[in-house]
Recover the amino acids of this structure.
């Protein structure tokens, strides 16, 4: 009888051990399935409203940041964002320390020698803001003989000075140019389009309008390594999906209004 009981106990222990082993294997499989792929993203978080850090210096915010998180999600990745000096972004990508770059980066021939760019996701350029009731200015050539506020040392200042007869008034910041327009000291303000759009959206002003014409044209793109051409294809597919399903428009409206 004792021998029979001993055999039963051994059998039960064996079954328990087998069950525990099976359960452990299943748990490991689930853990493996939950492992997320990470998309290593480089940015220079000093270019509002595209990329900047919140007041606590922790969270990365801006149009680019929301867009790349949506792109990563569409691609099946978890977004991991790193803040790097702008001139160090492409070297970091070339060294395989990053998978992609999104940082208000203009697509140009010089950069295209080093990286692949996604389809353009934002068209930038210089735009004009005028008082809503001013119908005399509808394009850049109408600035002839007008007083125009620009930020000192910018492309805006350089380009407006080329307009014959325009009286250029330079200020230390873009915020100062808007204040001058509000005070009636100038007829128009010329800044980068995203700067103007962000001002209109965040200030809530209703007595100004932005003209559609752009003096210069720059396309922003997401950069990836030339060694990984599949990444560009994935980025383009994700951007297209976000345009098609309306998510891109939601993100754009959040940061730039109706544009």
């Amino acid at each position: 009888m004792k021998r029979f009981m001993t055999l039963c106990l051994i059998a039960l222990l064996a079954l328990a051990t087998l069950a525990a082993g099976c359960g452990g294997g299943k748990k490991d499989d689930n853990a493996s399935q939950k492992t997320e792929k990470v998309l290593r993203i480089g940015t220079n978080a000093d270019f509002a409203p595209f990329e900047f850090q919140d007041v606590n210096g922790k969270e990365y915010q801006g149009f680019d940041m929301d867009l790349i998180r949506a792109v990563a999600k569409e691609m099946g990745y978890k977004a991991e964002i790193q803040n790097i000096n702008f001139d160090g972004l492409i070297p970091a990508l070339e060294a395989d320390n990053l998978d992609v770059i999104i940082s208000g980066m203009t697509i140009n021939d010089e950069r295209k020698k080093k990286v692949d760019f996604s389809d353009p996701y934002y068209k930038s350029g210089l735009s004009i803001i005028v008082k809503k009731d001013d119908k005399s200015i509808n394009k850049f050539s109408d600035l002839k003989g007008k007083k125009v506020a620009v930020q000192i040392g910018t492309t805006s200042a350089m380009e407006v000075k080329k307009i014959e007869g325009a009286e250029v008034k330079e200020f230390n910041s873009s915020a100062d140019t808007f204040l001058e327009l509000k005070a009636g000291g100038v007829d128009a303000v010329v800044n980068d389009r995203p700067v103007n759009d962000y001002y209109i959206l965040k200030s809530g002003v209703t007595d100004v309008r932005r003209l559609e014409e752009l003096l210069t044209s720059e396309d922003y793109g997401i950069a990836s390594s030339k060694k990984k051409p599949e990444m560009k294809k994935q980025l383009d597919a994700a951007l297209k999906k976000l345009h098609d399903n309306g998510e891109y428009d939601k993100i754009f409206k959040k940061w730039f209004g109706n544009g």
In short: The chain is about 45% helix and 25% strand. Confidence is low (pLDDT under 50) at residues 1-29. The longest helix spans residues 2-34. The first strand starts at residue 37 and ends at 43.
